[in-house]
Fold Type I-E CRISPR-associated protein Cse1/CasA.
Amino acid sequence: MPEKTDANDAVLSFDLTERPWIEVLRRDGTQDELSLREVFRQAGEVRRIAGDLPTQEFALLRLLLAIAHDAVEGPRDIEHWADLWSDPQCFVRVDEYLDRHQDCFDLFGAEAPFFQTAGLRTAKGEVFSLNRIVADVPNGEPFFSARMPTVDRLGFAEAARWVVHAHAYDTSGIKSGADGDARAQGGKVYPLGVGWAGNLGGLFVEGDTLRETLLLNLVAADTSGLRFETSDRPAWRREPSGPGGAERTPTGVRDLYTWQSRRLRLYADSGGVHGVVLGYGDPLNARNKHVVEPMTAWRRSEAQEKKYGEALVYLPREHDPERAAWRGIASLIADRAESVKEGSNVPARLRPGILEWIARLVTEGELPRHFLVRVRIIGAKYGTQQSVIDEVVEDHLPVAVLLLHQKDRDYAQQAIDAVTDADNAVNALGDLATDLQRAAGIENESPRAAARDRAFGALEGPYHGWLAGLATADDPYEERTRWQRQVYRIVSRLGDQLAADAGEAAWAGRTLPTKQGSVWLNSALAQQWFRTRLGKCLGYPSDSDQPPTPTTAGSSF
C-alpha cells in the first residue's frame, strides 16, 4: 500500500558530480563506483560501465555521451573528432562543464532535482514502492534479483542509477496521474508506451577502455543521415519539466539521450530512498527517428506506411532474444545499397548510425583498417502489453572496422555470406534430425529444433574467432573457404552424434514414399542425404568431403 506524505523528511543533497554512484569495471578486473567527474578523469583506466542490469549500462553510457557532446560542443566534424582522439586530455573540458552546471546534478535539488520533477505528487499525496523503478523486481515478479518480493529502501547511488534507467526503459501500462497532468483520468494515465530506449535494438561500439568507447560513439555533427540542430541540448539545460508531457521533436542526440519519457520524484530521508512517484512524461513516437537516433538498426515498415499514409516509414529493429548477434551481422555491416530489395529503390533496412559513423572514420583513414571493436548489443523484451520486462538481451560481436569500409566491401560480403553458410549447414542438420525421426516412425519437431540450437551454439565461438581474424587475411575469399571447411567439420560431427543417438528403430528403418517412389529410410540413408545436402550448401570444401552418391540422395518427403 502506498504511504501518504507531502514532502521529504529533510533537506537532502546528493551531488552526482562529486559523489560516487556509477559502477565501473576497471582494466585490472576490479569493480569500483565513481562520480561523474571521476568517470571522465579516469576513463582511460576504466574498462567499461558495469550496471545493475545491461540495460542500465546502456542508459548510463547515453547519459555520459550527452555530457561529452555538450561539454566539447561537438565534435563539429571529423577533424574535430580526430583532435579529441589524439588528445589524452580530451575530456578536460567536462570538469569545467560540470562546474557550470553542478546544481543540475543534485539528486535532491530543490528546483530541479536530477532527472526528476520538483514537487511531483498525486492528487492524494501517495508515495509508492521502489519496485516501480527497480527493473529487476517488476511489480512483485522478481527477475535476476535476490530482492524478494519488494524493494523497501535504496542507497542514494543505486537510486540515481535506477532513475536514469526508468527514463530509458520503464514499462508501459496504467500509471498514476500526477496532480496537474491534463492526461489524468480518475487519477490514472492510460498506457503511452515504454521509455524511449525500450523501443530500440540498442547498440554501441566498445573499445578497449571507456575513453575509447565514449569517443567511438561520439558522432560528429556533420554526419550524413543524422540531424543535429544548433539548439540541441540535454535535459538539464532545458526548462524544468512540469507534471504533464509535451509532444515535440528531438533536436539531436543530446536531447534524445536524456529524453524525459517519465515524470518522477524520489522520496528519501537521511537513511536512503524509500519511495517514488512515477508517471508518464514526454511521449515520443518511434516512426522515422533514424535521423536523430544512431544507436539502433532500422527496418522499413510498409504496414506503417499504409496506416499513416506516409511515403516511407522506418522503425527501430528490435533484438530477438533467440537469435545470437552474429547471425544478424548483415543488419550491422551491410550498407544501404546492399539492403535494397529487387524492384525497389529504397533500402529495406538501415545500418545503425553509430556504425555509419565508424564506417566513415575508417574510410577517411582516421581509424586503421585492422582496428578491432566490439559491437555491444543490449535491449529489453517486454511482455503482457509492455507492462513487464520479460527478458534483457545482451550480446557482442568482435568486428574489425575494415568490414565497415565504404569502398572495400569484399571483406564485409564474405562475413555476411559466412553466416549464410552456417544457416544452410544448420538447416541440413535439422533435416537429418527430421529424417531420423521419420525412420524411427516418429513425428516430432522437437529434435529438429534442438539440433538447430545445438549447431548454432557450436558455431558461434568459431565464427567470432574467424571474424576477428578476417581483416588480417590477404584474401577474404580464401578465408571464406576456410570457414566452410570448419563449418563442415563441426556440423558433420554433430550429425554423426545425432545418428548414433537415434536408436535401433531408426537404424532398422521403414518404407516411406518419396517423390521418386518408395524408399527404405534408415539412419544410414539419412546420413547419406545429410552429407549430400551439407556438401552442396558448403560447396564441398575439400575433395575428401564429398560423400558417395546414393541412389536417391537428397530425397524429400
User: Anything to note?
Assistant: Residues 3-200+223-284 form one domain.
